[in-house]
Design brief:
The radius of gyration is 17 Å and the shape is elongated. By secondary structure, the chain is of the alpha+beta class. It is 47% helix and 15% strand.
């Protein structure tokens, strides 16, 4: 049995930039940020930046000079992302 499939790129783009997907991305980023805050000393600034490229996206950043050390030593960002079901992989171009 042969199946024919044609990708509707415009339709996929429309879905990935829709308000529904934006809400899901934002809520997930907020949850990751809350999980990061729980792993860090009280009062540590954790920032959520929302943006759109070809899709809705968000970044969670530890706004503290010690943030890279906490990630390198304890994997706080990786653990927080994993706790909401996200898979963290090395970035590739």
């Amino acid at each position: 049995m042969l199946i024919s499939f044609r990708l509707d790129r415009a339709g996929v783009r429309e879905v990935l930039t829709s308000s529904g997907v934006r809400q899901i991305v934002d809520a997930t980023a907020d949850e990751v940020a809350a999980n990061v805050r729980a792993l860090l000393p009280s009062g540590t600034n954790v920032d959520v930046t929302r943006y759109t490229t070809d899709r809705s996206a968000a970044a969670v950043t530890i706004v503290d000079v010690r943030g890279m050390g906490w990630q390198a030593r304890d994997g706080v960002l990786t653990r927080a992302a994993g706790s909401v079901g996200l898979e963290v992989r090395a970035w590739q171009r």
